[in-house]
Each structure stands twice: as structure tokens, then as C-alpha cells.
Amino acid sequence: MRILPRLLIGAALAALALPAAAQVAPGAPGDKPTWVNAAKTGAGASYEAYVDGQYRDGGQTGDVSRVWFSIADGVLTETMYGLIHEAQIKQLRFAVVTDGGLSVEGADTTSRTEYLHVDAAGRPLSPAYRVITTDKAGRYEIEKRIYVSPDDQALVVRATIRALRGDVTPYLLLEPHMANTGVGDRGWHSTAPLTQPTPDGSTSYSVLHAAEGDVHLALWASAAFEAQSVGFVGVSDGLTDLADGRLDHVYDSTGPEGGNIMLTGALPTIRAGQALSRDFVIGFGDSEPGAVREATRPFVTGLDEVLARFNGEGDRIGWEDYIASLDQLPRLAEQSTDGGKLAYASALMLKVQEDRTHAGALIASLSNPWGDTVDATNPSTGYKAVWPRDFYQVAMALLALGDEETPLAAFRYLPQVQVDADTPGNTGATGWFLQKTHVDGEIEWVGVQLDQTAMPIMLGWKLWKAGLVPDAEMSRMYGEMIKPAADFLVDGGTIGLLWNDRRITPPWTQQERWEEQEGYSPSTTAAVITGLTVAADIARTSGDAPSAARYQAAADDYASRVETRMFTTSGEWGDGDYFIRITRNENPNDKAPIGENNGQPAHAEDRIVDGGFLELVRYGVRAPDAPSILASLPEYDDQTREDRFRVRYDIDGVPAFRRYGNDGYGEQTDTGGNYGVGGEMHPGQRGRLWPFFTGERGHYELAAALQHPSADAGWTQAQLNGIRQTYVRGMESFANGGLLLPEQAWDGVGHPTAHDYRPGEGTNSATPLAWTHAEYIKLLRSLADRAIWDRYAPVEARYAR
Fold first, then answer.
1. pLDDT digit string, tens, across residues 486-517
2. Could you tell me where the DSSP H helices lie in 608-758?
3. What are the phi and psi torsion angles at 512 (to 5°)?
4. Is 481:414 a contact under the CB 8 Å cutoff?
5. CA 480 → CA 486, 551, 558, distances in Å?
6. Measured on CA atoms in the order 145, 150, 151, 154, is the torsion positive or negative?
7. Which of 42, 131, 445, 792 is most solvent-facing, going by the fewest CB within 10 Å?
8. What is the spatial distance between Cα 754 and Cα 34, in angstroms, rounded to a whole number?
9. β-pairing, 204-212 with 140-149?
């Protein structure tokens, strides 16, 4: 319904007044807070157009919205406002009192997630969702439509509750986690009278408030709640009070003490066979009046119009326009086996997971892995942060889609996360890229991963060759960013930042791509050789011939010793000839142990196999039929090995792979519990299947098919169709009902978890993982082009002979 602006403004002003004698909730600070399930089935934000390559108000899309949301188990989960990692809400759900007792969304319901706005083929055109939860006992159903107001700092939730059997009384439960923690929050509620009734007869509106410091939220309901309460979780909150089916204790405020709080709003009883619809808008701001103002503005605009603007319908600028700008997306969708649904969803997810203050700041995932057991006492970014490796994957996938603006913004963003003389606290080497940072560049982790220093160079070269970075800009970026990075890949240096004081001697890396082990890694070395080779190309064009020669000489040296450093000829598995995951020294045959990680004991280096050697083929460092590559495939593929060391598991005919043998980054096999509960490692932890490895293997198989193309076009097409049906379809099989791809999928090994996962189903690790969506898009582009998207021509020409 459309709300009259002057009625709403009067209500907003009245909403700021608390009752004179507020009843203060007892029990501060409440239970110890956690985050929430990371297996998202939906994630969204508004589309915002750049203004001169940056995010600024006043462009085609008006004011910039800085609100993101996620959905899991059928309920709204982490919702961010400000920077992309700054969560303000843990979850919003409904509890329903029925004639059979209390039922709570999530725990007591099943759910499905659908896209609200799709094309004629059912492909999503915006990240607006319809979420339907159904009581397991069949007593009620709740439909929620969730999207962001693109011109406001506000989230819209439009709910319809249907009583399917018997009368039901629903209660809205909002759990804030303001300022990115579950402690220190204060809450209160107010009722706003209207000077005249709205068209539906409402005479007042209800507002629930929460704040910590200078961050505020206000939930505005389209009609007054029957009752409102705020309280401390586990003691005086609405859900605890409803255990007996009645909201007996109503509190107006949590008082001056902060804590882990819940806001509750009671809705009218719904008779059997009837339904009730209510609209809720959550506004965010730096003050109470500011949050209330943001919550009311979408009602003034009209919520249907807000959705149309979000979608970009008609002459409005929104998500439809972004999708239409991706000129490669239609041909990529033709390579899919699902009609392009996952391709369109992946395009949305890759763009959603960009910060809206720092243009080009691409994060790993809008989730906090295994969040339902992760302590929320202190701020945590989870995966809502910048890793240059994941960053590279996403930027390359966006480029594959035909997005020229975001990858360019990403390249120009990268100096913010490169170590230089001005990096706070740095007393050591420069040129390398930080392991993990907030999107504003705040340092979080400082391990040195050489692939994360090479990949920014690789991205820059691709953009330059695509004509998106002019020669003049590339020469400038060469001096400012690329040369320092390439120099580090040659010379290394002693680190002097926070705890890190190690000496790095490339291609020895302090951490490989899994951030756990030091030494010589095939995947890391592949990136370093590639980065130096293309850096040499950039250096020559920039007039620095001596550096070009130095970079190429180092790359040649590293490439000449790939097998002697990392390929065992006396290994424990098979015939003993294969690439190992990593070795701490230059002898892959000495059976030296690598380090303990994730609660797993150390094992001899030749017992740990992974697929990192395939990156040598992807970039062009080795040909697909190189003897070392062909010798390693049987050991990577061996499914007869005991589960601890086994890597490949075929799930319903889909080749699927763990990161490496003995991986402990996952759920416990003995109890089914989450990874790292209580911050402690456990011997029973087991890393599961990572769906993007299915795409990596698909890329290898495509490279092998293209290496010696058949003169018979029909045979070549049959090969491509086989890759499509095995690897593209395989990746699509890992998508959940919201078309989101996970970090890890269940392999069926060990004790079942509380989620009762089926093999191939995404776990509570992290969904959506941007890297997985990126790998899928890149595989589609590679098939469409009949050329590996991540292949680097100078590297292939020099080494893949």
C-alpha cells in the first residue's frame, strides 16, 4: 500500500519519544552471542552505477545504498550497512504460537528460495527474493519478499503469514548485532500515532530500535504491533518468554547497559484458512532520527515502486541494466546445461559482493563460515574481506562476462592493499600484497602468499591487452604497483609487519593458496612464473628493459626447476611419480614432513597430493600432455585410497575433489560438529569437497582437448559436449535452491551433521563463495571461446612446449 508522506513524517517524529516510565528488561548482557548459518540461499544488494569509476551519490542510480543482506534456512540473516563487512543484524525470523505449541522459523520449518524477478526463461534478473517457509507440522506458511531500497539505507521485508490448519499467532523476532558484534547493543520500541488513519484504517505505526555507538537501526511496521518488547537473549527476550505460548513480560527498553538483545513485535492472531500481510522496512543511520528517516522513505516512495527501481524495470536504472550490459552473458549461458540460470545468478552474485564505498573492492563471500558456532563478541569479517587471490578470480570472471568497469575499478583499487613504505607499522620489505584486509585497507592478516602478489600483475596485463588500461596508465601503474610487486617476486625480502619477520626467498612462499603451509608449491609457482613473464612484457613497454630481462630470467629459472623442486620420483602412491602438494625444501624425495594444520598430524610430503599442478597448465607454464602432468593425474584421481588421503570423490557421476589429502578444514567426522568450535582444532575435522575444483578439472580437460584439435569437427564438438555435460553440469549440480554455489560440499564421510547433508550438498562453510561462481563463469567463457580464459599467451609460447 502507498503511505501518505505527511502522515508518515508525523509518525516518524512521534516515534522518537519513549514512554515516560519505560519498563527496563533484566538480564544484561544476555547469552554469549554467535553468528548464524553460513549456508546462504540468497544474498543481495542494490545495483549502483559508478560515477567516474567510483561510488558517489548523484549518478544514474541516485544515492548510493550501502546495505547488503543474506538468507539462510528461510530467514533473513546477516545484514550489513556501511562497509560490506559491517554487519548490523544477525537474523530476523518469525515465531508462531499454534494449537500444538511454539514453532520457530528455521528450526521448525522447511524452506525454499526463489527469485522475484526473472526473464521468460526463468533466469534471475535481480537479487530480490521470495522465501517461503512451511511449518513441518503443516500448520502455517510464511512468504517473505526481501530486497533493498536502492535510494535509501533500508531493507524491505514484505511478509504474508497463512494459517493452514488451526489458528496461529505470529511474532516477529529481530536480533541485532550492531557495529558487527553481538554485544553492546541497546534496544527500545515506540509507537507512532498518525494524525489521520491510512487507507487501511491504521491509526498508528510501530517502531523497533537498536543502536550501538553511532550506528542505529529502526524497524518500521506498516501497521502497529499488538505488543512490542525488547530484551536480552536467553533471559528476557521475546522468544524465551514465548516458551509457554504467551508474551507475558513486555519491556520497553534494555536500559543503559548493552548486550546481546532481541526485538519482538506481536502480530494479530490469524484464523484457520486466513492470511495476514505486513510490510517491514529496516532503516540504518548514524542517529536515531536518521535511521527512522531511512525506514520511512521507502513507504513514501511505495514498496512496489521501490522493487521496480531495484530491478531496473522500464526506464528505471537497476539490476536489469547491469545484466543487459554484460554482452558476453548470453553466449556464456548457451554453454550451460540449465538454460543459463546459474550463469545469470553468478553474474549477480559476483557484482553483489563488491563494497559500495570502495569501488572495485571484491570480497570472498557474504558469510561468516560455520557462523552458528562462531563467537560474535568481537568484530569479525569472516569471508567479507579482500584476499587478492579470490579478488583476481572474481575480476577475471567479471571481465569474462563483458563487465569492463568493475575489473578496471578492481585493478585501480589494488594499491590500497599493497605493502609500501607508508603501510602502518611496516619496517620491512615492500611490494607484496597483504594476505587479508578489510575493504578500506585495514590490515587483518599478514602472511606472505606469493600467488597473491603475482595475480594483481596478471590481472593488470589482461586488462591492458584488452584495451581497458591505456599505455600511459599502465606505465604509471608499472612504476607505482607492478614493478615493486615483480621485484619482490624476484628478490623477496625480510618482512617487518606485525608478527611477521620471516625472510622470503621466491619461489619459496610463506603460505600457499590454502594459507597453511610454507615451501615450494606448484600452484603458487605457476602464478609467480606467469606474473613475472607478463611483468616483463609490461616493463619493456614502459621503457625498463633491464627489469624486463631480470623478471624473465627469474621466471625462466623458476620454470626450469618446477619438477626438480616439486615432483617426486619415489613417492608412496602409485608408481611414485607425481607432483606433491608442497615441499619445505628443494628435495621432493626426502619424505620430510610438512606442518600440522587444522588439528591434523604432520605427514611426509609425498603422502599429500592435491590438484595445484593443474594451475601450471591453466596459465601455460606446462602443456596438458607434459609428462609430469600426465603422471600426476592418476594419483590425484585415485578413489581407492583411504579417506584421510583420498582427494577425489565422484558424486552422482560428477568428479569432485577435496583441497588435498589430510585436509582438516571442515566438519568433524566423529561428532558431525562444525569446524573450530570454541576456537580449538580437533583431530576429527575433515575438509570436504570444493566445487570449484570440478571447474578447474574441466579447464584442464578442455586444454587437453584443444591442444591437438581433431580434423574431424564432429569429434571435437563431441569432446566439448562431454566436458560440458561432465564439468559444467557438475558445477551446476552443486548450486542450492537459490542458485548459490558453496565453498564446500558434503562428501558423505563420517558422522552426519545436524543439517543432515546429502552428498554434494553445500555445507555450513561459506555460501555463496565468489571464487566458485567465478570458476563456473570462466569455464563457460573458455568453452564459448574454445580457449582457456586464464591462459597467458607469452607464458604458453615460452614454456608449454
1. 999 999 999 999 999 999 999 999 999 999 99
2. 614-619, 627-637, 692-707, 713-723, 729-733
3. -90, -165
4. yes
5. 11, 17, 25
6. positive
7. 445
8. 17
9. unpaired
pLDDT in tens, 714-741: 767 889 999 999 999 999 999 999 999 9
| Lowest-pLDDT choice from 96-105, 193-202, 645-654 | 193-202
Q: In whole angstroms, how far apart are CA 389 and each of 306, 393, 414, 435, 580?
A: 36, 7, 12, 9, 21
Task: Could you list the beta-strand ranges (E) of 99-202.
Answer: 101-104, 109-115, 129-135, 140-149, 154-163, 169-176, 186-193
- Rounded Cα–Cα distance for residues 399 and 236 (Å): 51
**Rounded CA separation 617/624 (Å):** 6
Backbone angles phi and psi of 114, in degrees to 5: -130, 155
Contact 754, 727 (CB under 8 A): no
Q: What separation in angstroms does the CA of 285 have from each of 152, 153, 184, 751?
A: 10, 7, 17, 45
- Can you tell me the distance from the alpha carbon of 473 to that of 475, in angstroms, rounded to the nearest whole number? 5
- Fill in the amino acid letter for 761: E
What rounded mean pLDDT belongs to the chain?
95
DSSP 109: E
| Amino acid sitting at position 786 | R
The grid cell for 136 is 513441518
Beta-ladder partners of 583: 520
- d(CA 263, CA 281) in angstroms, rounded, equals 14
SS3 (DSSP) at 218: strand
| 550, amino acid identity | R
CB 2 within 8 A of CB 306: no
Cα angle vertex 360, ends 383, 319, to 5°? 90
Are the C-beta atoms of residues 283 and 177 closer than 8 Å to each other? no
DSSP 250-300: --SB--S--BSEEEEEE---B-TT-EEEEEEEEEEESSHHHHHHHHHHHHH
What does each C-alpha distance from 444 to 385, 417, 597, 692 come to in angstroms?
Answer: 9, 11, 20, 25
* Contact status, residue 425 vs residue 801, Cβ threshold 8 Å: no
Weakest mean pLDDT among 200-204, 397-401, 519-523? 200-204
Contact 723, 695 (CB under 8 A): no
Cβ within 8 Å of residue 389, ≥6 positions away: 449, 451, 452, 455, 513
Three-class SS of residue 443?
A: strand
Can you read off the three cell numbers belonging to residue 515? 594459507
Give the containing element (helix H, strand E) for 230: strand 227-232
Residue 3: the pLDDT is: 45
352 CA to centre of own chain:
9
With contact defined as beta carbons under 8 Å apart, do 63 and 155 qualify? no
Read off the pLDDT band of 4 (50, 70, 90).
very low
| Residues 65 and 356 sit within 8 Å (Cβ to Cβ) | yes
Which cell numbers hold the place of 168?
Answer: 496461529
Contacts of 119 (CB under 8 A, 6+ apart): 125, 344
Are the C-beta atoms of 183 and 29 separated by less than 8 Å?
A: yes
Contact 219, 282 (CB under 8 A): yes
Q: What is the pTM of this model?
A: 0.97
Report yes or no: 116 and 128 within 8 Å, Cβ to Cβ.
Answer: yes
589-622 confidence digits (pLDDT tens): 999 999 999 999 999 999 999 999 999 999 999 9
The cell 565468489 sits on which residue? 770
